[in-house]
Amino acid sequence: DTGVSQDPRHKITKRGQNVTFRCDPISEHNRLYWYRQTLGQGPEFLTYFQNEAQLEKSRLLSDRFSAERPKGSFSTLEIQRTEQGDSAMYLCASSPQENYGYTFGSGTRLTVV
Amino acid sequence: GEDVEQSLFLSVREGDSSVINCTYTDSSSTYLYWYKQEPGAGLQLLTYIFSNMDMKQDQRLTVLLNKKDKHLSLRIADTQTGDSAIYFCASTRRALTFGSGTRLQVQP
To answer: Which chain B residue has the Cα nearest residue A34?
Structure first.
């Protein structure tokens, strides 16, 4: 069990650039979640997938954000035209089904300069 | 108001018990969870309780649930310096909704 892997661990980008993060969940987990966490706050829900289907998106997820899980395995989160307010830790989690505790990855820390 | 609320900070002495409190709004939550986050690390699932239970004990951890008042607590017995971290309470809708976290500081 390799856990949930996220890549990269850190990303520094200039305002206006696009960035893409990757998440590899635990292989037998059907559900995959993306959260964003800023300093001093709890994780905020962004979106989740059951297999390849994106079932819910938070209103926090503006049209600059897009997430995919094309084959129901790994997922990518892309942010277009990054803004300084996008600076945060982006966390991915997976679970085998609804109402099971999530296993979180270590996150990708994004800094927009 | 916020869906899940927690106090921000708790300081205890090593060996004492810690009690971290949480209130939530979603009465349909099936499970309620406690997560721990150490500096620079991801979230670690500590324990959870099913909504039809009042109490769950897991080694040094005791979870109490008052469903009527929508109040959840986490008691850590014999608190150690290694327990210093941020503790998050989470309720369940389609996805977990987290509180802002309680920073636990354990003084030697």
So the answer is: B95
Structure tokens given for B30: 């099936």
Q: Which residues pair with A20 in a beta bridge?
A: A78
CA distance A75 to A86: 19
Are B100 and A40 an interchain contact pair (Cβ–Cβ within 8 Å)? yes
Distance CA A74, CA B32 (A): 27
Contact B108, B81 (CB under 8 A): yes
Q: What six digits make up the tokens of A104?
A: 């979180």
Segment A50-71 mean pLDDT: 92
A110: region left, alpha or beta (phi > 0 left; psi from -120 to 50 alpha):
beta
At B12-56, the pLDDT tens digits run: 999 999 999 999 998 888 889 999 999 888 899 999 999 899 999
**Would an 8 Å CB–CB cutoff place B99 in contact with chain A?**
yes
How many residues are present in chain A? Answer: 113
What type of residue sits at position B11?
S
Q: How many residues would you count in chain B?
A: 108
